[in-house]
Design brief:
CATH class: Alpha Beta
Number of strands: 10
Helix content: 25-40%
Structural class: alpha/beta
Strand content: 15-25%
Shape: globular
Largest sheet: 6 strands, parallel
Strand order of the largest sheet: 2-7-1-8-9-10
CATH topology: Rossmann fold
CATH superfamily: P-loop containing nucleotide triphosphate hydrolases
Number of helices: 9
Number of domains: 1
Distance between the termini: 7 Å
Length: 227
């Protein structure tokens, strides 16, 4: 059976891709066949007339090494909310291509790691939120939250939004090394009634092997990769 997780954040720029790369390479180092995908990415540069999403490419490289082909359903040019980026590109993001991408990724994989865009409630179209997509997949949700003052409120709100849609929770990963303990992990665990999968320290180097080593040392990967 394939272990399937969807990585979301409490906001944009909270380290989702760094954490997703870290757990992807850590899974590969364990000898697991892992697929890492980003179904929707805005801010994708155009190369040879085609979108070339940077995050999707980084995830593929973390899973399968240099030259691995990025897996995505929608690559959008403008670095704005996906619903607006899609409108500017003259396309509408639909559920079916995303589900098809996930289904293809699951074939023969031990672990599938999918990364969202921004937070859980990011709109993809006039009628579709990313939360709606994840709710249809059955994937367990990993919430990446910055380890800073204010993260308790944002994380608990994300947990509530997920539970309201029946999305199963794998847990929360706190990202970053704070100057002082602010009680984030304890409060989120207690009030959110969910697992803290670990606290990912600030990485001095962002290469995949370094990130994987930090994930192995600081995250509960057994819990994360369970079926």
């Amino acid at each position: 059976m394939t272990s399937r997780v969807f990585v979301t954040g409490t906001d944009t720029e909270v380290g989702k891709t760094i954490v997703a790369r870290a757990i992807t390479r850590a899974a590969a180092r364990r000898g697991l066949k892992v697929r890492a995908i980003k179904p929707v990415e805005s801010g994708a540069p155009i190369v040879d007339g085609r979108p070339s999403p940077l995050d999707a490419s980084a995830l593929a490289q973390a899973a399968e090494g240099p030259g691995a082909e990025a897996a995505f359903a929608y690559g959008l040019r403008d670095p704005v909310s996906p619903h607006l980026a899609a409108a500017r590109d003259g396309v509408e993001i639909e559920l079916a291509p995303i589900l098809a991408l996930l289904e293809e990724a699951e074939r023969g994989a031990d672990v599938v790691i999918a990364e969202g865009a921004g937070g859980l409630m990011v709109p993809l179209s006039g009628s579709l939120l990313f939360a709606d997509v994840i709710a249809r997949t059955g994937y367990r949700l990993v919430i990446v939250a910055p380890n800073v003052l204010g993260t308790i409120n944002a994380t608990l709100l994300t947990i509530e939004a997920a539970r309201a849609r029946g999305i199963p929770l794998a847990g929360v990963i706190l990202n970053g090394t704070p100057d002082a303990d602010m009680g984030n992990a304890d409060a989120i665990s207690r009030f959110g009634e969910t697992a803290i999968l670990g606290e990912m320290p600030t990485a001095r180097s962002l290469d995949d092997e370094t990130l994987a080593g930090l994930a192995e040392a600081h995250l509960d990967l057994d819990q994360l990769f369970k079926h």
